Amino acid sequence: MVSLSGVFQEAYLAPGLRSYRECQCSWLLPELDSWFRTIKQFGIELMCYAHSHGARVVLKGDAPIKDITDPTFRASWIAQKVKLAKIQYMDGINIDIEQDVNCLSTEYYALTTLVKETADSFHREIEGSQVTFDVSWSPKSKNRCYNYTGIADACDFLFVMSYDERSLALSECIAAANAPYKETLTGYDDYIKIGINPKKLVMGIPWYGYDYTCLNLMEDRVCTIPKVPSWRASCGIASGHQVPYKIIMKQVNSSISGSHWDKDQQASYYNYKDSSGYFHQVWYDNPQSISLKAAYIQKHGLRGIGMWHANCLDYSGDALAKQQTEEMWKVLKPKL
C-alpha cells in the first residue's frame, strides 16, 4: 500500500473547509479506534500539518475476501470506514486487499463491487475524497485474478506495488533484485495493454531491499539461495528478509564487496559476511535505479509515483543520513 505523502506528480489538496480549528474540534469526539489513537499519540499537529502542506491522509481498508460477497457486510464495512474518516477529518481510503481470488468467481465480482460502492459512498459523503486500490506489479498474477479494468474504472487510481516481484513467479534459486527494471516496466505495459488509462496508474517503488543468506557465493558474485517451496514461488523473497534503506546505507560501506551495479536488472547489491561466517547478498533500490524507472512515468503518462514506505529512511540529525534521505525523496519528485 502507499504511505503518507507517498504519491507525487499531482496536487493532492485537502478540502478547503478542513481548517486547523476543525482538526482541534475533531479530537473532542469520543469515538476512537487504533488508527485514531495512533494519530493522537503524535499530536493533533500531525493531521493539520499534513493538510497544510497539501497532503492527503487516508485510511487503510482491508476485509476478508470471503466476507465481501455479502451485500450486508459490504454496506456495514463501508459505512464504518466513512464514519471513521469523517470523525478523523481524513481524505479517503486506500483499499489494500492483497488476497487470492479465482477468475470469474463470486469473490472476483464482489471485489469490484466493493471498490465501486466504497468509491461512490466516499465521494458522496466526503467532498474531494480519494479512493484508491493496491495491485500487484503485474496483472498476470495467477493467484490474484482481479477485474483490474473494472476496479480502475471504479476508483480514483491504482497503486501498483512494483516490489516483491519474485514472490509471484517461479524464480531461479539465486539472489536477485526486488524490482528488476525490465520486469517492472513490463508490468505497466501489461496494465495499459488491457485497457487501463495510464492516468489511473501510480508507480509504487520499494524503499527496502532483501538480504539473502548464500548457500554458495560464486566468484562471479552469484549467490545461490535455499529453495523454499510455496504456492507462490519455488524460491525468491521467501528465502530472504526485508531490510530498510537506512540499514542498507549503514551496512554497505562495511561490506566485503562495496556496492555493485547489475546491468541486466538495473539494481544495486553488495555482499557481507556475518558473525557466524555466512555470506550474504543484499539487493536494493537507490536513487539510480529508481530514477530509471521513474522516467517511464512522464514518457507514458502515468499519474505519479509513490513508495513503500517512508519509515525506511533515516530522519536523524546525521549529516550523511540526511543527504541520503533527501536524495531518496528528491528522486520521487517529477522533473518538470
From TrEMBL:
GO terms for cellular component: extracellular space; lysosome. Keywords: Glycoprotein, Glycosidase, Hydrolase, Lysosome, Signal. PROSITE patterns: GH18_1, GH18_2. Residues 1-336 form the GH18 domain. One of its GO terms (molecular function) is chitinase activity. It is found in: Lysosome. InterPro entries: Chitinase_II/V-like_cat, Chitinase_insertion_sf, GH, GH18_Domain-Containing, Glyco_hydro18_cat, Glyco_hydro_18_chit_AS. Involved in the degradation of asparagine-linked glycoproteins. Hydrolyze of N-acetyl-beta-D-glucosamine (1-4)N-acetylglucosamine chitobiose core from the reducing end of the bond, it requires prior cleavage by glycosylasparaginase. Belongs to the glycosyl hydrolase 18 family. This is Di-N-acetylchitobiase.
